Inverse folding.
């Protein structure tokens, strides 16, 4: 551990997430569930939070199996409509530690290692790969071992950097995720495709990993010159559990590790369990005309450093 105090910067950020569903005729809406509320932690504090819907809804809060905070909207008293708008706005104070020191347990610093029994019991579902026929993904993941000199951290850094460096980013608005072997074969995908590829690759190596959804703050966006991939929409990345250090965030889309640019709203074993907004309507499938999502993440004050 360094004797010097780490450099910490603090940002006051605002997130505005607007989702609009359009229909060919007025339809009745069923319950909708939103995963918008950020995870508060020692690095992130929520200072305000507001959600509006049109038509008007009543709402309640629940925690899912992963302890994500879910807002459930009830439209049973609302009249039919050909448009559904959901607008969420919140402010957070986000702290970033520059050059963080990750206190990985000595036994886990070198790969391979075995999780202690008391951790394994809770992590086993996040270690087991979810996709079948992943021989290519397994070979690709194992290719990073040789050049890592047995260092667990180097393997994870290398996977993160390789996806950022070697894969083409494609923004996709449609739902669903590419199978990891397809992302690997195409060397292209969206942020959620890259997150699933890294998640499955680390699981193939016997490490516990989970899917993360949230938002990405790009400081250059405030200057009308975006520099990070995945800003302006919901973003996806990965957490890997390392004994001693805990859950560490890796953003393969941008090659970032434990970045203060990330605002986490949900974690899950599968991306399908971390949908930002999900619900139903009464009508024919062809009544649905489309969905538009607009996300703005901006700074409300200059960055403070100390």
């Amino acid at each position: 551990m360094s004797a010097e105090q780490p450099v910490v910067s603090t940002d006051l950020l605002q997130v505005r997430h607007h989702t609009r569903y359009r229909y060919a005729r007025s339809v009745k809406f069923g319950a909708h569930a939103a995963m918008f509320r950020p995870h508060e932690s020692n690095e992130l504090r929520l200072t305000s939070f507001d959600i509006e819907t049109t038509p008007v809804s009543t709402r309640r809060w629940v925690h899912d199996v992963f302890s994500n905070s879910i807002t459930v909207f009830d439209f049973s008293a609302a009249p039919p409509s050909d448009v559904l708008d959901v607008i969420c706005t919140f402010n957070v104070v986000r702290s970033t530690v520059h050059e963080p020191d990750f206190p990985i347990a000595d036994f886990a610093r070198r790969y391979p290692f075995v999780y202690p029994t008391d951790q394994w019991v809770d992590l086993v579902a996040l270690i087991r790969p979810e996709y079948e026929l992943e021989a290519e993904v397994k070979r690709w993941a194992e290719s990073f071992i040789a050049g890592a000199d047995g260092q667990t951290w180097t393997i994870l850094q290398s996977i993160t950097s390789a996806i950022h460096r070697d894969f083409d980013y494609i923004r996709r608005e449609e739902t669903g995720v590419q199978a990891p072997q397809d992302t690997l074969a195409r060397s292209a995908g969206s942020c959620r495709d890259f997150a699933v590829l890294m998640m499955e690759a680390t699981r193939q190596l016997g490490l516990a990993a989970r899917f993360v959804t949230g938002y990405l703050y790009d400081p250059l966006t405030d200057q009308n010159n975006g520099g990070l991939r995945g800003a302006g929409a919901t973003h996806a990345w990965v957490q890997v559990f390392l004994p001693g250090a805990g859950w560490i965030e890796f953003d393969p889309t941008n090659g970032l590790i434990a970045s203060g640019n990330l605002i986490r709203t949900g974690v899950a074993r599968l991306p399908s369990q971390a949908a930002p907004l999900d619900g139903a309507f009464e009508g024919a499938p062809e009544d649905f005309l489309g969905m538009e999502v607009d996300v703005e993440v901006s700074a409300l004050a200059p960055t403070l450093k100390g």
The chain has two domains: 8-95+275-305, 99-273. Residues 152-166 form the longest helix (15 residues). Residues 161 and 255 are 5 Å apart (CA to CA).
